[in-house]
């Protein structure tokens, strides 16, 4: 009896320790764990070696010590756990039922110690123990998948340290066996799938086999699917799924992958409380995915999201957090992207600070150290390019060289590090001109190319940088073989099937430049391919404002391409390229409204689907610009619609007879624009300035070189004029206080435009000077480009001289058009049987701007004129003229007249508009949502309604173009501020001409009516010398 008392006592103690350990697993109270260890030690020490339960007491103690190690990180705890577990195992035979589980825990303990010690012998011991556990466990045993999973984790740990690919192969095999042996309803199944996916992703990073990446995504998807929202590891599985999508996007740049990565990361963040150790990791990954999408789409909203996520991650992670360096590095990358977009050097300083701290926190043997060094080198490179300090480029080179040195050739990031090293050498060469630097740049970029498969998403970047190195060497040493090599690499980059459209466009532009210098046979091909990238640069999956922003990097290219065609006497191609490359966004939106009867007749189901997607896509593109904020879900829906639309378009073009469906118009179609008079395209390029004339009856485009005009002439004229007019840009009661009495200035500008632009055209067309009456004058349509779009071509002439005055209005009636297509009459353009006119007046501006009493007079005169006709009038004044009211009536009224303040938004031109009731603004982005039949006149008696964005001179981002887009056949607008007392006179005289008899007016006579009204102003001695009173009024369209 005495010998049995200690056994009973130790068993009771062991049972108590086991219950306390279970309680700790739920509560994580450290006091419970300390009690567990104390009691387990006593039970283990008191039990004799002959006791059949001693091994159980030892196992409980070892597990408790391991948990304490997880909390404290004290290696003494894990050392003791390993020693106790070893003693416990020695007490039982290999065929004991507990032996496999003890071996499994023994291996796990060694694995945990390895994570802290990095001692290879620890991970080797872990693998040996776990392999033994797997061998001793039959397949039907519930613990077999557990041992297999832990074995896979140990192989994965060893792979991370030693980079032996056989280890990741064995990790995958172990995880796959664990998954196969585990039913879907087992709560551990998602964990096994998740780690299997992560191992496939690791192997992909080293071998680059897309099959591994697809397997990774499939495993992570299944893990997320099997884990309920309240599963403790659901956020972790979502995070890893997002990472797989992010890796896939980095390799293939399929936009749907980055959208899915963002969605997964957002869900992971939402499911994770702020005090959870994984929250910073999830936030950093979310931020990185937004940064990646920004680099692809150039949408600054993504940058805002990225920085917010990264900053919160850094804030939540203490300096001893194992991933703090990673969070800092990714924050630095977001700052660097901000610099590239906003060109504010403060962002580079912030990036450098973040990268430097990341590098300092990371030992050289850490796998991420090269990544942090590479990013640090990039930031120093940008700092050098901005400030020109040689110390920056030396630091960039040092960081890039160390990143390359620490990275094996089979690592998927090695090509990027080599490419960036080449960029640093090139930066220094451009500053110092040392041949050795550019040679080393070329070698580094060539090495990057050799390590990169042809279908890699970054291949175009490496090709472009290599081309840039050859081009720079050519510029310094004039070796034409270098220029040949530059052409080859730029052409390959521009024609790449993967990669950022922005990068590909820039490569195409450089291809054109090099080919032009060499007069290479690929010159026209280069222009054509790069032009076709414009619609990709301004992708339909982006809102209007973001598309316009993307096109700012293409400024001047279309004009240069046309000048090249002119240089080669291919005037037809020049016209086609200008039509394709100007007003890109308006052209895209018109495509979404195009009717396609032929397609409906032959493929009705496909036509209906395409029509439905087009309508949804158009509405999606406006939503962002009319709402304060758009959700990530809306953005992803917009992306998906654009991808679907492009897919359907390719399908339609594959159908017999539809290969030209929605393709850019050919010259034969464009000739229809000249039905009412010659159309004069004024191409103003850095290469040359030319007039390209389209006339009915002429089989070819007429070319007229504007030999006396240069791009700089036109640009300087615009700058000078802008200085004179640089004020708020609203309709004002008195303009004298805003504009100086510099009549000579206006005379000089108008004279220069006459001699250098207009007179050569009129001479070529042999137009005679007419008498004062405008009824005898022919019409002419000006389609200016570049800086000429901001100059008053319509008023060019010789004024104020002692001799006879000469002005364009004595020869022709001038109208403007943003494109040739805008002048082509649609089949549905019919003469209306009655006039429905919407008149909107806002004499007050709710205290925002000056009062406009003249607007009431203006509207009353219109009302008087209309009263004699069979017409309906809708008058909206004061509080009745809200944006909602006006948009509703615009769809129903054939004519519209606005008399109010105009607002020009220089930051976001689609927000330019008209000031209506209740301080509301009728924005351009509101107007273009309207659908209405073609025809009618829009009279915009407000300031700057035909003033575009100087960054987008060829995109016609103004209200006049917007009115043409929604179907008005003609538009009277203003180039800048107008006088409140002059506007009613112009309106009265225009309508007096249009409504001169009892017949219904024709909007196509509006240009003639405006010509008469302005002519009448010029005859008034009080006004004629005040150019700013009559100069701003212009006509657009038919």
From TrEMBL:
It comes from Laetiporus sulphureus 93-53. InterPro entries: CHAT_dom, TPR-like_helical_dom_sf, TPR_rpt. Residues 750-1037 form the CHAT domain. Pfam families: CHAT. This is TPR-like protein.
């Amino acid at each position: 009896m005495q010998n049995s008392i200690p056994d009973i006592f130790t068993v009771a103690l062991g049972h108590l320790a086991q219950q306390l350990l279970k309680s700790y697993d739920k509560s994580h109270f450290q006091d419970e764990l300390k009690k567990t260890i104390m009691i387990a030690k006593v039970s283990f020490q008191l039990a004799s070696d002959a006791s059949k339960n001693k091994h159980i007491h030892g196992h409980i103690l070892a597990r408790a010590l391991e948990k304490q190690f997880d909390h404290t990180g004290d290696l003494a705890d894990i050392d003791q756990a390993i020693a106790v577990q070893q003693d416990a195992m020695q007490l039982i035979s290999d065929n004991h039922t507990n032996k496999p589980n003890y071996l499994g825990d023994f291996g796990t303990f060694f694995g945990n110690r390895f994570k802290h010690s990095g001692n290879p012998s620890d991970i080797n011991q872990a693998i040996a123990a776990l392999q033994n556990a797997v061998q001793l466990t039959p397949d039907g045993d519930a613990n077999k998948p557990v041992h297999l999973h832990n074995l896979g984790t140990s192989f994965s740990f060893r792979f991370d340290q030693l980079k032996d690919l056989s280890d990741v192969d064995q990790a995958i095999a172990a995880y796959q066996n664990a998954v196969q042996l585990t039913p879907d309803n087992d709560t551990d199944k998602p964990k096994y799938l998740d780690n299997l996916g992560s191992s496939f992703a690791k192997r992909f990073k080293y071998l680059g086999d897309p099959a591994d990446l697809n397997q990774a995504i499939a495993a992570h998807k299944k893990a997320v699917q099997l884990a309920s929202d309240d599963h403790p590891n659901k956020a972790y599985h979502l995070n890893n799924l997002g990472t797989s999508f992010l890796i896939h996007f980095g390799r293939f740049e399929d936009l749907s992958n980055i959208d899915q990565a963002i969605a997964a990361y957002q869900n992971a963040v939402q499911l994770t409380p702020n005090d959870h150790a994984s929250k910073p990791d999830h936030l950093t990954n979310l931020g990185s995915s937004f940064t990646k999408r920004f680099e692809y789409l150039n949408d600054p909203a993504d940058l805002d999201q990225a920085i917010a996520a990264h900053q919160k991650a850094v804030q939540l992670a203490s300096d001893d957090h194992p991933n703090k360096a990673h969070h800092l590095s990714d924050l630095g990358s977001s700052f660097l992207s901000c610099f590239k977009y906003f060109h504010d050097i403060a962002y580079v300083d912030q990036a450098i600070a973040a990268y430097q701290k990341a590098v300092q926190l990371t030992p050289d043997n850490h796998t991420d150290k090269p990544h942090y060094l590479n990013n640090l080198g990039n930031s120093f490179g940008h700092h050098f390019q901005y400030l020109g300090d040689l110390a920056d480029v030396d630091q960039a080179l040092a960081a890039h060289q160390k990143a390359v040195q620490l990275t094996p050739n089979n690592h998927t990031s090695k090509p990027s590090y080599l490419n960036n090293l080449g960029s640093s050498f090139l930066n220094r060469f451009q500053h110092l001109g040392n041949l050795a630097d550019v040679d080393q740049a070329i070698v580094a970029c060539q090495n990057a190319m050799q390590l990169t498969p042809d279908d890699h998403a970054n291949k175009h970047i490496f090709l472009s940088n290599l081309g840039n190195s050859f081009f720079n060497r050519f510029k310094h040493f004039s070796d034409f073989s270098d220029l040949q090599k530059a052409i080859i690499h730029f052409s390959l980059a521009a024609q790449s099937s993967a990669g950022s459209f922005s990068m590909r466009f820039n490569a195409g532009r450089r291809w054109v430049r090099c080919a032009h210098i060499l007069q290479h046979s690929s010159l026209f091909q280069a222009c054509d391919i790069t032009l076709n990238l414009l619609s990709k640069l301004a992708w339909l999956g982006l809102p209007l404002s973001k598309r316009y922003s993307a096109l700012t990097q293409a400024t001047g290219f279309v004009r240069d391409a046309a000048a090249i065609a002119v240089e080669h006497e291919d005037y037809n191609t020049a016209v086609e390229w200008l039509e394709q490359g100007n007003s890109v966004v308006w052209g895209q939106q018109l495509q979404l409204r195009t009717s396609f009867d032929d397609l409906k007749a032959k493929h009705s189901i496909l036509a209906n689907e395409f029509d439905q997607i087009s309508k949804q896509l158009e509405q999606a593109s406006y939503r962002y610009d009319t709402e304060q904020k758009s959700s990530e879900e809306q953005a992803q829906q917009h992306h998906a619609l654009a991808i679907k639309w492009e897919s359907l378009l390719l399908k339609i073009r594959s159908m017999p007879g539809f290969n030209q469906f929605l393709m850019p118009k050919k010259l034969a179609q464009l000739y229809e624009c000249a039905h009412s008079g010659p159309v004069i395209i004024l191409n103003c390029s850095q290469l040359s300035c030319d007039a390209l004339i389209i006339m009915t009856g002429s089989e070819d485009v007429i070319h007229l070189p504007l030999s006396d005009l240069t791009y700089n002439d036109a640009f300087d004229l615009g700058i000078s004029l802008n200085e004179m007019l640089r004020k708020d840009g609203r309709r004002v009661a008195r303009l004298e206080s805003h504009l100086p009495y510099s009549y000579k200035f206006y005379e000089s500008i108008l004279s220069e435009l006459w001699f250098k632009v207009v007179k050569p055209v009129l001479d070529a067309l042999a137009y005679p000077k007419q008498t004062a009456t405008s009824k005898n004058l022919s019409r002419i349509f000006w389609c200016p480009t570049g800086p000429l779009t901001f100059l008053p071509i319509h008023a060019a002439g010789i004024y104020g001289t002692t001799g006879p005055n000469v002005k364009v209005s004595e020869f022709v009636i001038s109208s403007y058009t943003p494109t040739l297509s805008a002048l082509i009459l649609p089949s549905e353009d019919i003469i209306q049987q009655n006039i429905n006119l919407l008149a909107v007046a806002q004499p007050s501006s709710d205290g925002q701007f000056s009062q406009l009493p003249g607007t009431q007079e203006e509207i009353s005169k219109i009302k008087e004129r209309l009263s004699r006709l069979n017409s309906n009038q809708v008058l909206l004044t004061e509080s009745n003229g809200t944006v909602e009211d006006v948009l509703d009536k615009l769809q129903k009224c054939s004519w519209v007249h606005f008399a109010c303040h105009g607002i020009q938004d220089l930051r976001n031109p689609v927000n330019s508009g008209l000031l209506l009731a209740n301080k509301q603004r009728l924005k351009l982005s509101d107007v273009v949502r309207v659908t209405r039949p073609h025809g009618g006149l829009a009279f915009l008696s407000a300031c700057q309604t035909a003033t575009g964005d100087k960054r987008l001179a060829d995109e016609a981002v103004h209200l006049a173009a917007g009115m043409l887009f929604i179907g008005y056949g003609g538009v009277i607008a203003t180039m800048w501020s107008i006088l409140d007392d002059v506007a009613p006179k112009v309106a009265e005289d225009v309508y007096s001409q249009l409504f001169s008899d009892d017949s219904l007016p024709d909007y196509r006579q509006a240009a003639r009516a405006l010509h008469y009204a302005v002519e009448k102003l010029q005859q008034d001695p009080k006004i004629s010398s005040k150019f700013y009173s009559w100069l701003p009024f212009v006509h657009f369209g038919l």
